[in-house]
Amino acid sequence: MDVAVLGTSTTGHALAAWCLRSDAAVRLYGDDANAVMDSVDAVQRRAGREDAIDGTTGLEAAVGGADVVFDLTGREIDARRDLLAEVEALVAVETLLVVGDTSDRITAVAAGLRRPGRALGIHVVDPAESRLVELVVAEQTTADTRDRAVSFVESLDTMPIVVRDTPGFATTRLDLAAIVEAVRMVEEGVASVTAIDRALELGRDHPIGPLGLADRLGLDTVLSALETLALELGGRFDPPDLLFEKVEAGDLGRQTGTGFYEWENGERVGPASPNPTVETRSAEASER
């Protein structure tokens, strides 16, 4: 299996390393030669092997003969369409074109192809810690493309889930739904920051609660994502006032040291303000 990875992002590193471990030959493409070679080194370290990967700044050298091409360049939609049209002219008819690292609809990106049925999207949920992969089926994606992509992702010892091409896909929508409700619970004084997160960390075996996750992602990033989903999907994703307040104050989470938690050296050290307490009546008041 020959795989071309276009782009030098963290997602590209993860996918390239998984392919190497599955004995695929990988070619990594980027515009900057230094970034390409740094990425090759990073992928080799992650995969624990130094063979079967080449880096290039030449598109034809990257995609020629590839069975699967991942576009993880992060380009704007028009530039991405141009790139994929160029790729399509260089690869075989049966080559899969897989689009990731984009907030654009996969359906819109694929519209520029002569054979849009060969395209679908990919979202690696957490390149550092998870092997869960969303495969995003565009309106044009054929059943054969979907099935071949599922088989390929499974061959990488990763877990694919197939989702429709909708805003936020599945995992992002679920994460943001939990985050927005958790922030509202803080606003309403339902429970403390720590208690809200423990409800899912200990009660539902989540690795991190929604408020801790929001801090890790960056509250500015969360706010932007919620605003986008609110426009697409309605008021259930409207960002709470408290989130606006924290972003405006520069309290963006782990990156700034303060969000819903205080952070030191990348670790949570305690809840930040506001941190509601659940008030109780005194014994004397209860007896009156």
From TrEMBL:
Marked site positions, Important for catalytic activity: H123
GO biological process per UniProt: fatty acid beta-oxidation
Pfam family, one: 3HCDH
InterPro entries to which the protein is assigned, alphabetical: 3-OHacyl-CoA_DH, 3-OHacyl-CoA_DH_NAD-bd, 3HC_DH_C, 6-PGluconate_DH-like_C_sf, 6PGD_dom2, NAD(P)-bd_dom_sf
GO molecular function: 3-hydroxybutyryl-CoA dehydrogenase activity; NAD+ binding
Span of domain 3-hydroxyacyl-CoA dehydrogenase NAD binding: 3-166
Region named Disordered: 255-288
Name of the protein described by the UniProt record: 3-hydroxyacyl-CoA dehydrogenase domain protein
Keywords: Oxidoreductase
